[in-house]
Hints:
Elements: H1 30-41, E1 44-49, E2 52-57, H2 60-68, E3 74-76, H3 78-86, H4 97-110, H5 113-140, E4 143-144, H6 146-163, H7 177-181, H8 184-193, H9 205-234, H10 245-255, H11 261-291, H12 294-308, H13 324-336, E5 342-347, E6 351-353, E7 356-358, E8 363-367, H14 369-372, H15 416-433, E9 434-438, E10 447-450, E11 452-455, E12 460-464
Parallel strand pairs: 2-8
Antiparallel strand pairs: 1-2, 3-5, 4-12, 5-8, 6-7, 9-12, 10-11
Bound molecules: protoporphyrin IX containing FE.
Amino acid sequence: MKEVKTYKTLNGPKGLPYLGNMFQIDVSRLHLQIESWEKEFGDVFKIKLAGIKLIVISNPELIQKILKLRPKEFQRASKLNRIIREQGIHGLFNAEHGDWEKHRSIITKGLDVKHQIQFFPELKEITERLYHKWEKDAREGNEVDLQQDFLRFTVDVTTSIAFGIKMNTIEEEGGVIQDHLEKVFPMIFKRINEPIPFHKIFKTKKDKDFEKSLNEIHIFIDEIIKKGKARIAQNPALRENPSNVLEAILVAAETIDGFGDEEVKGNLLILLMAGEDTTAHTLAWSIVELIQNPSAIKTLQSEVDAVLKEDILFQEYEHHNQLKYTEAIANETMRLKPVAPIVLNEPTETIEVDGYLFEKGHRLVIQTRIGAKSETYFTNAEQFNPERWIAASRCPMHNTDAFMPFGAGPRFCPGRNLAMLEMKMVLSMLFRNFNVEMVADNNPIEEILAFTMLSTPYRVKLTKR
Ligand code: HEM
């Protein structure tokens, strides 16, 4: 008879009675701790945190199977869903079961290729603003905080494509919505990892700051909803043919049971947050990787010179299909530096998958980077080598089932195509027009996990090519 592995029979690091492995984990380095434990205990192992049983999974075949069994047999971690909801956010990311299906079908329509083509002129406008900022920085010899610039770019893009609102945070001097947004993920992540919700007993300065920022974000979203409602009232034809996600959501709220004001607001908040950090930090990581690989910059520049010719950015939507090497850089960056290296899930009922028994109440810590950096799935897996995405057939190992930066199964990221378009647009514009150099006194660049995995701050100097 086949032996089923249970929590009891799994290996894992030894911990203290009841508290388990709590004091062995620095949450800002959790993904790295998991990678080091995986070497010792294998691709499915257990840990315990204050009585809670967690199973850590990095085996890509098992991960794919589990993620494909959502939303019925598995769901996002209920503690994560609850903490997000406690911030007044109820949307696609933390909806479950039938509720999730409703949210998913409404939100995905507004992020499809048709809307990207429609929105392309605005993407060009936003990218041109970024070009002018960098051109000025280059002229004045400024040190540039690219991470901040990328965050401003992604917020301007999301509010434009998803909400039809033209913002210009790239050219604003501080006091922007990003200052508030950047507090949300780290606080949610902190609260997920707290065994006791301390903030409900005593609020620290950080908790109070966070609440202030959250309030500002809610005010910002309320304003966007007001503008969307006014647009529909002025032009009722939008009810038949909404021009963006905001309008699609507002129409859904008028017509679909169980989709009301809370869901409208929740989804706008989710889109704003999910679309900002992820894309911006992936771009920031791609610069870190490229600067260490000058030959990749050369190949990138010859591609963008050929596609963009005399233009500062690509002019037609279809051009993005010609930027194969630029796309390969984005993929290779996400393979080595996925901004969401951990996806938290749990079984809805006790279930066996591939010889492992997952019980209701177990938490699954799914770590996607281990497979993506393993020789079992990718040749010379530790190396930054964008060519592998172009000449995959020349690599003995190139198994994209182990490449899951956008998740997998029915809940995979619905913003994936938009994110790829944004990244190709920014990378091609940057390297068509500028040389990028790290500032000499940057501290060593390290990974920090704060829900998304970002790099420690760094600055660059830009010079005109
Ligand atoms: C490089 C950029 C991005 C990365 C790496 C990324 C990654 C992810 C990952 C790992 C998930 C979880 C998937 C799963 O559970 O299987 C996710 C979900 C999601 N993402 Fe993204 N994302 C990116 C950009 C975006 C953008 C631009 C948007 C929208 C504007 C977006 C909206 C969402 C939403 C709404 C979900 C929840 C989907 C659901 O639960 O059904 N993401 N993303």
